[in-house]
Design goal:
Blueprint: H1 5-15, E1 21-26, E2 29-34, E3 37-43, E4 46-50, H2 53-60, E5 65-70, E6 73-81, H3 90-104
Antiparallel strand pairs: 1-2, 2-3, 3-4, 4-6, 5-6
Helix pairs in contact: 1-3
Length: about 110
């Protein structure tokens, strides 16, 4: 699956000042890694986000959000945000929340 380059550029703009940022092709798209652990990514035209358990529960209640499923199995701490939920400054808020959650929840020190 190809990923939306414009969406990836928008994510880069939000994460530009993050220490330990790198990109890696993953899940058929592009993952943004902080300290070698996935924070968010782009798959097709959707944003993928990684949260802690509390953050993912809150995210799943929002419009345009659905559980991320990989090979038919939902991932407990990850969601997809559809294009309708990424308009304007919404994308920046989502990416910042995922980056903040990774620090608060210690996700950066754990594997998916």
């Amino acid at each position: 699956m190809a990923y939306n380059e414009n969406l990836a550029d928008r994510v880069r703009d939000v994460l530009v000042d993050e220490v330990g940022l790198r990109e890696q092709k993953m899940f058929g798209g592009l993952a943004f890694m902080l300290d070698a652990h996935m924070c968010c990514g782009v798959a097709g035209d959707e944003l993928t986000l990684r949260f802690g358990p509390e953050g993912v529960d809150a995210a799943r209640t929002r419009c345009n959000v659905r559980p991320m499923d990989f090979a038919g199995r939902p991932l407990a701490t990850m969601v997809f945000v559809e294009p309708g939920g990424l308009r304007g400054s919404a994308l920046g808020r989502w990416v910042e929340q995922a980056a903040d959650a990774s620090v608060r929840a210690g996700i950066r020190g754990a594997r998916i």
